[in-house]
What we know:
Blueprint: H1 18-49, H2 54-81, H3 94-107, H4 113-124, H5 137-160
Amino acid sequence: MVDHLPLAARPPRPRPHRNTLTLLVGRITTIKLAYWAAVTAVELALPRLVDAPAASRLPYSIAAAALLLVGAVAWARRSARAIDRRLGGLYRSVPTVATAFIAASVVASPASIPLLLVERQRTLEGGCAAGAICSFAPILLWVAVLAAGTVLVPAAFALSMRGEDRG
């Protein structure tokens, strides 16, 4: 009977090597840089597209940031499962998950600074006294975008990597 044949245990996968972790850092960094560049571009273009005060444009900013986040998360999920011709796939392990979050927070986070500068300028719009902050909403939008990019994008990437028990 075939049911009584012993099955050989599959050998454990090798631990990630430097080239594999470099591939991971490159992918997650590219996604996050593109996400923040896109949000920044939308924030720069929005005053030209929507002729309204900054407070009235805020819902458009939130919607655009949310839509771009959905795109970044989808890209992260797809990229985490993509097979590289030379290096193979990325498999979920403690080093790869840690590297995804470290790369997201250390390497790519400075890319959010141009968006911070744009949002800081938005806080000054609205006819307040010179140098006074009219609204904290743009800064809160930046904090939300930063948090989402630092947590949600790498989490989607890490959770989408192939598990070690899959073939």
